[in-house]
Amino acid sequence: MSRGLVRGAAVAVLVSGLAACGGGQGGGQGDGQGGGSKELTFWMYQDRTPQAGQVMEKVRQDFEKANPGVTVKLVKIPKDDYNTKLGSAVASKSAPDAGILDQPLVSKYALDGTIKEVPAGLIDEADYYKGALDTNRAGGKLYGLPQDQTTVALFYNRKLVPTPPKTWDELQQAAARVHAADANVAGMNVPKGDGYGAWMFPGVVHGAGGQLVDDAGKKVLFDQPPAVEALQLWVDLLQSSPRKITDSDKPFENGLAAMTISGPWDVPTIREQFPDLDFGVAPLPYKSEPAGNIGGEDSVVFATGKNQDLAWKWLAFLSDAANNGAVADAFGGFPVHLKAQVVAGGPEQAAFLEQLKVAHARPAVPQWIQVNDEIIAPAIESALTGKATAQQALTDAAGKTRSLLGWNG
Amino acid sequence: MTAPVLERVAAGPGRRARRRPGPRRRDHLTGWLLIAPALAYFLVFLLYPALSALYYSFTDWNLRAEANWVGLANYADLLFDDVKYPHFWKSVSVTLQYTLIAVPLTLVSALVQALLLNAVRRGANLFRLLLFLPVVTAEAAVGAIWRWLYDPQYGLINTLLGLVGIPGQNWLNTPELVIPALAFIAAWQCGISMIIYLAGLKGVPATIQEAAVIDGAGPWQRFWRVTFPMLRPTTFYLLVTGVIAALQVFGLVYVIFSGNGRSVTGGPEQSGLTYVLHLYLFAFRYDAMGAACAMSFILLVFIMIVTALQFRFVRQEAA
Question: Are A205 and A212 in contact (CB under 8 A)?
């Protein structure tokens, strides 16, 4: 073998490697543009179950049948990598036509101008759950359509709490009774001052008729009485719910905490791993009005897309009365369309659906996740550990939030 | 194809010397081609990302929109603006405390394990395997197991403490106890340091030990006056690499505090918010990639200073 041959081979390998890289990026773009046929790319999370994949496949085919000449390409990405992948795609101007977008990201993308506003007349807003639709709003404008929604509610151990409390007072009494009867059992697994606890907190504040931020997204309101009372409720509950018990692994499932706040995703796991636990689910107790918070998947159209009208049509199709029942179930949540058929589930479903009717979207502030994690969570924790009163902690947090967001109202 | 290529290279210079002692440009080309894969890897996956990160540290990049040049604002805000970055200094302090506790604890635990292994006559392989196991166990499993061990209700640690009359603690939920609890896990995972110490121990000449015995030195004196000084280069190496690793601790805190699918905000009252966890949150949760890049360069400079100080002030030669 000559020296030249070695070099030639090395060069050939390098060149073909480069060509392969280039090819990978170029593929899948060009086709579908010409000849009246259109291709629509839709990014979504990887299927939770094989059945969910079948549902999406059927909806895709139905849409293609209803829109001759249109091909919909579903791109499924693992949930953990989704936001990063989508961010890089948007940064490199190779975003899909449409895609799923996590609720708190909608206002961020809207701020950047990387997603489009929902065209007037696409949907009738009255057909949708208000809370779910509101998760798509930023600055008062609608930037996407919800596809599924979920929420948290009160899980209660039927042996320890025969009838679920409806109000804050009943909740306190129920918790106190449980702990008085057995000092080794906590009344309630009180949320903590971490990102998750801070995410649940607004639902409680709304239950006292308050909100964290005003509707216009201009004023911090969580130093006002409703929020202070909500935090005080958690502080008071700790008397009948010592952390030493509830910080244990799965306190509710193990029967060490009589009540906890959690979502539908926990129900199958509990049923499977703790078949003997007799528990029920009820809407969150409230002070002056029933309320809760909301999570789930939204869907948006990206500004770089070439087939925006078609993309909106596809998103509306997914969330309409005929399809959203199955689609929402495939995504792991409840329908967002009021007339959609809910896929039948366990006895706890009614409580979650009732809760969703009164659920409130989190504030549409682009930096909300940071405020939630870095300001509100530590404030909750300092009140719960007794290092500050509820009022002090929230006043301090509200001041920090105003400075961070530059709101001086 | 590899073998002939290697033969060719090995045989090359001799034959060429006979045939054509002239310019060597063609050989340079072959050389470059041979190192091309490694060089390409270095340029594409190490140097280019590092330089881009340096560039982005001077921008407000959020991973999506155009990055705008902001000069030194990220660095200044991180260091001085506690409205924008309320927990930056907290994360520095958490990381320093962790390093100060975890590194000595790891070194002691590794050395003790290595001495024991060195003394064992039978079953050394089995013990070595068992002591090394924590290193090769998946981090997620380590996190789950230690959450159970530290459990305030059923935890084995509290049970053991109870036997000697110490009241049980709520380890991972008491701010003051979080760092010691994490450092203890790190010390348990000291297998790699242990293997390096073991290699160091094998390198201590038996003749010196024997001479010490003849001079009447007891086991304790032999350890402090012979073995330990002879291990000084090993200890120095482990100290330097251990400090660098501890300053970058991430996986452990992430798995310990991310149980039940919760968002990670760094444990009770941010007591477990280590520097790199804080950096990670800004990069991937709060969409502030520019600030996160700046944090990584602040860390880089800090690590370089700490390492230089260690080279300057810690004795490294065997004596």
Answer: yes
pLDDT per residue as tens digits for the range A82-91: 988 998 899 8
- Do A232 and A167 share a structural domain? yes
Confidence of residue B307 (pLDDT cuts 50, 70, 90): very high
Residues 175-234, chain B, touching A (beta carbon < 8 A): none
Q: Closest-CA residue in chain B for A91?
A: B64
Q: Do both A129 and A232 map to the same domain? A: no
Q: Please name the residue of chain B whose CA is at the shortest distance from the CA of residue A396.
A: B83
- State residue A213 phi and psi, 5-degree precision: -135, 145
Q: What does DSSP say about strands A292-293 and A359-360: parallel, antiparallel, or unpaired?
A: parallel
CATH architecture of B88-313: Orthogonal Bundle (1.10)
Q: Is the pLDDT of residue B15 over 60?
A: no
Asked if B84 has any chain A CB less than 8 Å from its own CB, the reply is yes
- What pLDDT does A158 receive? 96
Q: How confident is the model at residue A10 (pLDDT cuts 50, 70, 90)?
A: very low
What domain count does chain A have? 2
**Burial letters for B86-101: b for 16+ Cβ neighbours within 10 Å, e otherwise?**
bbbebbbebbbbbbeb
What is the Cα–Cα distance from B301 to B212, expressed in whole angstroms? 44
Query: Which of B8, B41, B148, B263 would best serve as a mutation to test chain A binding (most A beta carbons within 10 A)?
Result: B263
Considering the domain architecture, whether residues A99 and A197 belong to the same structural domain is answered as: no
Print the domain residue range for A388: 153-293+367-405
Cβ within 8 Å, pair B286-A256: no
Nearest CA in chain A to B282: A370
What b-and-e string marks burial along A283-304, b requiring 16 or more CB atoms within 10 Å of the CB? bbbbbeebbbbbbbbbbbbbeb
Q: Are residues A115 and A244 in the same domain?
A: no
CATH number for the domain harbouring residue A250: 3.40.190.10
A132 and A59 fall within a common domain: yes
A234 with A136, same domain: the answer is no
Chain B residues with CB-CB distance to A381 below 8 A: 268-269
Does residue A204 sit in the same domain as residue A139? no
Segment B222-227 long-range contacts (CB within 8 Å, at least 24 positions apart):
B223/B115, B227/B201
Chain-chain contact of B265 with A109 (C-beta, under 8 angstroms): no
Residue B2 pLDDT class (50, 70, 90 cuts): very low
A residues 64-83 near B, CB within 8 Å?
Answer: 83
Same domain, A91 and A52: yes
Is A399 domain-assigned? yes
